[in-house]
Structures are given as C-alpha cells and as structure tokens.
Write a structure and sequence with these properties.
14% strand, 2,3-Dihydroxybiphenyl 1,2-Dioxygenase, domain 1, 4-stranded mixed β-sheet, alpha/beta
C-alpha cells in the first residue's frame, strides 16, 4: 500500500495540481528511466520515453483507476511507449557510453575510464533477460528496494529478490560494484524534472488589473498563490498572468451569463464567474476556511447541490478588481 502522502499527491494531481505532480515525477523519474533503458538500451531514447510517459500520465490522470498504483500505472505507460518506439524506430539509437555527457572538469584519463566503465556495465547488462535487467536497473538507478519494486511490477517479493540475486550471480562481484558506481552518473536529476514540468504547464489567462502591486500582494498573502516578478500567479493548477491596465475601464470582469446556458431546473450561479477551479468535496471546504481566515472577499459561501449519487460543493472568492474564482468539487 502506498503511503498517505503519495496518495494525496496523486489526488491533487488529478485535479490539476502541477506542483504535486512534479513531486511524483521527482520520485519515479529514475525508475521509469530504468524501465525504458532496460528495453531500449539507448540513453537519449530512454530519456525521451521517460518524459513522454510522465506527460501522457499528466494528461490522462482520469484513466488512473487506483490512486494507490500510480507508479505501476506510469511504468505500464512507459512499456507501451517503448513498444511503439521499437516498432516505429523513429530515432537512431546511440549507445549510452557515447551519449553520456561528462563533466567538463574531468581529465582525459578520467573520461576514458568513465566511458570504459559504462561500456562494460551496459555490455554486461545486455546479456541479462529483460526481467532481470529491469529489476537490476530499478534497484540501482531507480533507487527502489525489492519490496517497492515488487509492488510496482506487481510480482511477489520473493520473485523480485530471486531476480536480483540471479542478476548479481550472472554479473559477478566486480561488475555489480561497477554497476553501483556507474549508476550514480546515470541518474536523472532536476534538469529532467524541469523539462517535464515545462511540458505540463497549462495556458494562463491574462488579467488586466487596476493596481498590479496590490493585486500581486492580495493573491500571495490572502489567496495563497505563488507570485513572481512578471505577474504570474499560480496555485494547485490554477494560474493567471496579471498585467497593469492602462485605464480603469480596461479592467473587465465577466458579467453574469444568460440563464439560457443552464438546464431548466438550475437557476444558475448567484454571481458571475471568471474562473472555475476543480478540487474535491473536502478540499473545497478547507480552501473556504483558509480564505475566510485570511480575510478574502467571499463572493458566495459554500453551496451544496444534490446530484443523485453524490453531492457537489462550491464557493467563490473575488480579487481586488472583482474577478470571481469559483472552487468546486464532488464527494
């Protein structure tokens, strides 16, 4: 069973929280990369596949049926992408030993030694069956223990331990030590996480405001958004780009729409909407209590609507220029 923190990250990710998803990428990046490399035996292709796997997971979170199995799910996505890559052969493969970027401050001798190490490691790993190679790479590059690997691959713990022992026996002591040493050079870091994060960015709505400095302060101090110097404000998948209006009349929050937009049995919202943000039932209440405590302008308090098999709760806040943000979610 996954720990509560990871389940919460998956839940938040399903509602568009990019920061929560970034933490999942950081946790699983190397194990996903290891699975891809065990199939493709190519550094650049494996990195590409790892990126694609996380991006595909982000845009298809609604397809994840069990929030406790995010890791297993993203690994299955990775394997499917590897199969497609293998079939289509879209990229020319380069051996890892040729593709690895080495630090500029290494001497020529160190560069030769490191390349030789990598060549020896991957030549040795290539003789392993894929199931042994996958387990070995998940262990040494992914950094997961045998119990975690068993959960991710959905195989018994004894099977995983047996595969790892078998790999060690085949590779012998010297090569295993070389794998352990070389694995540290192969791990994906924050650069990879940043690339994935850049690809899952949602479009930002531009909002003209009457006083940019005060607007940024309100979004940061009262609404809890992350704010940067350019006017980007983001929180849990909700984001805007605030810009200073030239004239007060250029600031135009939405008007309340016609009732013709809604089903006949629903009178419509009590006020206009500028942005609708999705959360879950309990999350909506927590946000409301947080905003009230910080003195936010409440457009309307939480309302609960019976939708048959479940209930829908929503409330709305206003910013200093009257833009309305609605937070809604189901139980």
């Amino acid at each position: 069973m996954r720990n509560h923190t990871e389940i919460e990250l998956v839940r938040k990710s399903s509602y568009g929280d990019q920061e929560a998803f970034t933490k999942l990428v950081r946790k699983y990046s190397n194990v996903v990369y290891g699975v891809a490399f065990s199939v493709l035996n190519d550094f650049h292709s494996s990195q590409d596949i790892a990126q694609e796997a996380f991006v595909k997971a982000w845009y298809n979170m609604e397809q994840l049926r069990d929030i406790e199995k995010f890791g297993s799910w993203v690994i299955s996505i990775t394997r499917n992408l590897c199969t497609d890559r293998y079939r289509k052969r879209q990229l020319a493969e380069r051996p890892l030993s040729e593709a690895m970027d080495l630090p500029d401050d290494l001497s020529l001798e160190e560069r030769i030694n490191r390349k030789s190490d990598k060549q020896a490691v991957w030549k040795a790993l290539s003789v392993l069956d894929e199931k042994y190679r996958t387990t070995t790479l998940m262990y040494y590059i992914g950094g997961f223990n045998t119990r975690e690997i068993s959960q991710l691959l959905d195989v018994p713990l004894g099977t995983t331990e047996s595969r790892l022992r078998r790999s060690k026996a085949i590779l012998k002591k010297e090569l295993i030590e070389l794998v352990e040493h070389t694995a540290q050079d192969l791990k994906l870091g924050e650069d990879f996480v940043g690339k994935v994060k850049a690809r899952i960015k949602n479009a930002l709505q531009v909002r003209l405001v009457s006083d940019l400095a005060n607007a940024k302060k309100y979004y940061q101090d009262v609404l809890g958004f992350i704010v940067d110097g350019w006017g980007h404000v983001e929180r849990e998948g909700v984001g805007f780009l605030l810009q200073q209006a030239e004239k007060p009349e250029d600031v135009r929050p939405n008007a309340k729409p016609s009732k013709e937009n809604y089903p006949n049995d629903w009178p419509g919202p009590p006020t206009s909407w500028d942005t609708y943000a999705y959360s879950d039932f309990d999350g909506v209440q927590s946000l409301y209590e947080e905003f009230v405590a910080k003195g936010a302008v409440i457009a309307y308090a939480p309302q609960i609507e019976d939708m048959g098999s479940n209930k829908w709760k929503e409330f709305a806040v206003k910013d200093l220029d009257g833009y309305v943000i609605v937070f809604g979610g189901s139980n």
